[in-house]
Amino acid sequence: AELSPVDEQGRPLTKARYESIKPNQRGGITDDLTNWSPWQTYDLDSGLGGTQILSPSPRSYIQVRVQFSSAPLAGGQVDSLSFEFSPPLVSSAVAEIHPSEVEPAMPTPFTFAVRSRIESGQSGFDALRLRTAALVDSVTAVRIDRVEVPFSVDTESSPSQDLMIHFPRITQDQTLLEIDFGARVFRYGTPFDGALVDTESDEIALAVSPGDAIAEVLSDELVVRTSLTGSILLDLQVGPNPFTPNGDGVNDRVILSSALLRLTGDTPIETQVYDISGRLLRTLRTVVAGSSTFEVTWDGTDERGRRVVPGLYVYRLALDADNGSASRVGHVAVAY
């Protein structure tokens, strides 16, 4: 037996013809990834505010699939669907990131390269929106056709995961845009999503597609891979140590900081503080979303809020995740 998308006469197998075949003779149904992009999952928590279409653009057609779940006394329905669209800023744009394989959580210099096709009458773009689960520490340079140009960056925080990078407007076909930045990647297959923006119009941002933007760069991808081995918890940094929780605003708290690797869900972390005799004084709990950095702070008090006496204390930080468990044990000193 052989699975084939055509019938006995060599014609493409239609839905009606497929359904006429005996169930035990039918092959499986798979998505058409030759002519369509994969299905994307959308977060509709914003309600009437809508959500950005993640599928490749510009395109002439779009498919929508709505999946319902119901209970014996409850169901759901779709009242309406609406879409906003606008003329594309460019005909197409491909991008790639380099390097595409890095050490996890290590500060790494990256280059995000974009090459666009622009036709007569299209406005072009003067900004790029970069979104990623990695932590971007800084943007260091922007080049247009290999020449450095002035730029500015809008971001809500640093390190950031959502940046808008502004530069001189690009209107020429096949122009190469390169953006250098430093970032830390914590999870295998972390995507770097880029979109071209015309800040002088209300046109919808155009998402770039992975592809060959620079011939000498071989990645042709917008994802970065890290090692799949090793601990899911990086070495713990503890400081200041000793610390002085006397209320003067200087070194009043000790901070335990690290990063989680290769995790996707929420991970609870528990930190316990003991005195030197082994008596538990304080338990600190936090939840870390996915693979990212985190901090645990101890203010030098016990569970009742009483300030501990000067001396040496033992901490144990532990986590238990689907990908494994990890813990760290160490000492911290309290002094006045």
Write a brief structural summary.
This protein has one helix at residues 15-20; strands at 92-98, 108-117, 125-144, 147-148, 152-155, 160-170, 176-184, 190-197, 206-207, 209-210, 223-224, 237-239, 254-259, 266-275, 280-289, 293-298, 311-321, 324-334.
Biggest sheet descriptor = 11 strands, mixed
Overall pLDDT score: 90
Task: Give the topology string: H per helix, E per strand.
Answer: HEEEEEEEEEEEEEEEEEE
Q: What distance lies between the first and last C-alpha atoms, to the nearest angstrom?
A: 81 Å
Q: Please state the overall shape, judged from the principal axes of the Cα atoms.
A: globular
Radius of gyration: 27 Å
Name its key features.
336 residues, mainly beta, Immunoglobulin-like, eleven-stranded mixed β-sheet, four-stranded antiparallel β-sheet
